[in-house]
Amino acid sequence: MQRSTKISSSTIRLNQPDSNQAEVSLFGPGVGECIVLHIGEGKWFIIDSCRCPKTKQPIALSYLNSMGVNVAESVVGILLTHWHKDHIDGAFDLFTSCKNASLYFSHALNSREMFHMCALHKKDVFANTDKEIREFKSIIDSIFNSGEKGRLIPVSANHVFFDYRDSAQSTVNTKMVALTPSPVSTTEAIAQLADQISQAGPSNPKLRKNVIGKENINAVAIWFGFGNWSALLGSDLEMSTDDDKSWKSIFKSQIYQKLSLSKSSLYKVAHHGSSNGHHNDIYTRLLSNNPTSIATAYTPSNLPKRSDIDRIKSHCSELTVTRDINSNTKLKLDPMVERELKAIAKSRTVLNEKIGHIQIRITDQGTVTSEASESCVYY
Amino acid sequence: MNYKTISTQADIVLVGSFNPAIFHPEWFIRNKIIAEWNYTKDDLLFVPDITQVSLPSEQYLKVLLNQFSIKAMMPSDFLGLRDIVSSTFSLLKETPVHQIGLNYTSVLKLSDEDWKKFGKKLAPIEVWTNSAEYFSELDDKKKEQAGLCKLVINLPRNDELNGFIRSTLSVNSFENREITFSINNHIEIEKKDVPQMLDILESHWEESLAFSKLYMDKILNA
Amino acid sequence: MPEQAISLSFEQVIHGHSSLIEGQPWGLLNSEKQTEKSAFPYAHNPQTKFFDLSLTETGTSHAHTPNKRFKNQSTIPVELKDYTEDLKQIWDGTVISFNEDTIKIRLEDKITLENPETIVDLSIDEVSSQDRPLIKEGAMLFWYIGYREGNKHPRERFSKICFRRRLGWTDKEIEDANTIAKEYENFFINNSSQPA
C-alpha cells in the first residue's frame, strides 16, 4: 500500500505565471474537474468546468479573477471534453464571460441527435431533469441566437485543433492535439443518443440522469505541448475492447509517430484513476519514464481506490490527488436528524465540501515546479 | 410568543375554466399522476359541475366549473402538491387559467396570557371601545368580550407579477384560544394559459411556502 | 358614510354579495370614483383564497373534531388526523444506482443550503411498495425527517421517502423538438449562414 501525505497548508502561488511559463492547474472538488492552462504570453485555455463549492462560481473564473486576469480578453479557448455534468458545470458562464474564446467540443455532439436531445430538455427549474444538458443547450442556444457559429469548433481524433505560435517575443510553441474521439466512437455515441431519443415517450417518465452513454467513449483526450515539454490530459476516457475506440484507437492510429508528438512527462490520469481508464500501453507508449501524475477524485464511486493508487504509482514517480477519498466532513444537521440518518443509512459520503487544486508550472527550459492546496493528497 | 401549531395546510387554487368530469381518481391513476389507491364511494363526490376527491395521504381535491383547488394537510406533502398540479395540467395544456393562489394556513393555539396581548398589538382596542360611549358603563366581564375577531392585511408583491399577498387572521375558537392565520399569495396569469401558470407555479411554490412560514413566524413574534 | 354607499351596501347584502365590499376602502364606494380605474384592483374577495372543502365550510377547532366529519350530504368526509408534523429535514434526492436490497441516493439539503451534497446507501425497505416501481437511475424523490405530535398523539419521529412522478414527453413535444433540431442542424452543420 502506498504511503500518502495530506497537504497541510496550501502552497499555491497566487501570482500570474511568467510569460515564458506554462501552467497546468487541476481543480477537483470531489465531483467535478477543471483544468486551467497558461500557454504563455498571458494567454489562457480552459478544459472542462466545475463550480467552487462555496461561491458556486465556475472555478476557472474564480481562479483567473483572483490573479487579476482579464478573462474576456486573455482566455483564448475552452475545451469541453465530454458532457457529463461533473465536467461541464458552469460551462455556459465560462463561455459568456470569456468572449474571446473559441469553444471546442467532441465531434459526436455536433449532430442532429444531440440538438434533438437539447430541444427536448426544456429548462426544468421544478425537477432539474435537464441539469445534465442545460449547460450545452444554453451554449448552443446562445450561439444560434447570436449567429456566431465560428466560435464553436468540433474536434475529433488526430486533430491539431490548437496551434499557438506567438510573435517575436517568445520561441515557445504551444500545441494541442485531440487524440480522441475516433470515428467509430463518434458513430457509436451518436447512435446512443438516437437510442435515448427513441425511448422518450409518455410512458417513460422524465428522470435526472446522464444523457450520454456510460463508456465516455466520446471524451476528448488531448496532448498538450509547450516547447519540448508535453502533458497527456486523459479526461474521462475509458478502455474499450474495440481497437477502433477509446485508448486503443490512439495506439492503433500511431498518431504520436505521425505527428512526432513527444512522450509526456505529466499525466492527468484518465477517469479519476479507475481501472476502466487504465491501460499499460498508456505508460509505455504515450508517457516518458516515471512521469508525474495528477488526478481528481470522484467521491460517489470512491475513486481512485487504494488499488488504483497502487497501480498508478507503480508506473509513476509521484501521484497527487485533489481530495482524500477517506475524508468525510460532518454535515450541519439537527441532532435528531443526524441520529436518524445514522440509524437508517448503511453508508454516507459527503461530496464537494472543498476544492482541491494542483498547480504545475513549467519554464521554457523545461523546469517543473509543483504546488498543491490543502485538501490534496500526495502519494 | 407562546403558541402551539394545531395544524398546517397548503393549497393551490386555480381560477379559470375547467371540466370537473375529467378529474375522476381513475384519470389520475391511469395517467400515473398519483399512485393507485383503493378509493371508496365515500371518498368521491362526482356530480355534474362538481368533483370532490379525497386523495391519498390526507390531500383533497375540488373542481368546479371555474375553480380547481387541491390541498395538503401535512407539511411533508406540500412539495408534492406542485407535482400533482404540474403533471395534471401538462396533460390539459389548453385549459384557460386566469389566476393562481398559492396558499398557506395554520391553526394556532395561544396561551391565555398571549391571547389578549397579541390581539391588542395587531389592533389597538381603545380606538373601538372609546368610540362606543356606553362601553365605560359595562361591567368588567362584559368588557372582556371586546377584542379582535378578524384582520385582513394586503401587501403588494415584490416581483414583476400582478397580484398581492393577503394575510387573514381570525379567531377560530374563543374558548380554546385558537386562531387561524392564512396567507393568500394571489397571482394574475396575464396570458391566461397553462404554460404561464406552470411557469409561475414551478418557480414560485417553494418560495411562497418559505415566505409564508417565515412571515407568519415574524408576525407572531413581533 | 355617503348615502349612496349605504344603499349600495344594503342592496348587496340583500342579494348576498356583501363580500364584494369587504376590504374596499371607503373612497371606492363613491359613485364618481367608481368610474375611475381602481387604484386597488383586487378589492373583491379573490377566488384564489383558501381551498373550501364543503360549500358551507367553516374552520373548526381540531380539539373538538371527531375523526370523520360530515357537513352535509353534498360533501366528502374529511378525515382529520389528530397530529401535525414538525419537519426537521428535507432532502431532494436522485437515485444513482440500486440493486435488490440497496438504493444509492444523492441528496441535496433543502433546509441548510450550505451543506454539501451527500450520497447515502439505504435499504430498499425504506421505500414504500407503491413507490418501488419508480426506482430507476435518475428517479427523483423527497426525503423528510421530523416529528409528529397531536392532542391525543404522542410525539414520535418519522422518516418519509416520497418518489416524484414526472410525466414523460408527449408525441407532440418530441416532434416539436425534432423541428427545432432540424433548424439547429441547418445552422451548425449544413453551413446555413443564418438561423431559420
Please tag this protein with its features.
heterotrimer, A: 379 residues, alpha/beta, Metallo-beta-lactamase, Chain A, nine-stranded mixed beta sheet, 12 helices, 25% strand, globular, B: 222 residues, alpha+beta, nine-stranded antiparallel beta sheet, 9 strands, 30% helix, 35% strand
Topology:
The complex is a heterotrimer of chains A (379), B (222) and C (196).
Chain A lengths: L4 E2 L14 E8 L5 E5 L5 E4 L11 H8 L4 H4 E6 L4 H4 L2 H7 L4 E5 L5 H9 L10 H16 L5 E4 L3 E7 L7 E6 L4 H17 L22 E5 L2 E5 L12 H8 L1 H4 L5 E5 L11 H7 E9 L10 H8 L4 E4 L13 H10 E6 L5 E8 L4 E5 L4 E2 L1
Parallel strand pairs in A: 4-5, 5-6, 6-7, 11-12, 12-13, 13-14
Antiparallel strand pairs in A: 1-18, 2-3, 2-16, 3-4, 8-9, 9-10, 10-11, 14-18, 16-17
Chain B lengths: L2 E14 L8 H6 L13 E4 L2 E6 L3 E5 L3 E6 L5 H14 L5 E14 L1 H11 L3 H5 L9 H4 L6 E7 L6 E11 L4 E11 L5 H27 L2
Helix pairs in contact in B: 2-6
Chain C lengths: L2 H12 L16 H5 L32 E2 L8 E2 L4 E15 L3 E8 L8 E6 L16 E10 L6 E8 L7 H18 L8
Antiparallel strand pairs in C: 1-2, 3-4, 3-6, 4-5, 6-7
Description:
The complex is a heterotrimer of chains A (379), B (222) and C (196). Chain A has 379 residues and is an alpha/beta fold. Chain A has a single domain, classed as Ribonuclease Z/Hydroxyacylglutathione hydrolase-like (Metallo-beta-lactamase, Chain A), CATH 3.60.15. Helix content of chain A is 27%, strand content 25%. In chain A, α4 runs parallel beside α6, α5 crosses α6 (131-146) and α5 packs parallel to α7. The longest helix of chain A has 17 residues, at 183-199. The model of chain A has no long low-confidence stretch (mean pLDDT 89). Chain B is α+β, with helices and mostly antiparallel strands and 222 residues long. Helices cover 30% and strands 35% of the residues of chain B. Chain B is built from six helices and nine strands, in the order βαββββαβαααβββα. In chain B, α2 packs antiparallel against α6 (194-220). Chain B is elongated and about 65 Å long. The mean pLDDT of chain B is 93. Chain C is built from three helices and seven strands; from the N terminus they run ααβββββββα. Classes of the chains: A alpha/beta (379), B alpha+beta (222), C alpha+beta (196).
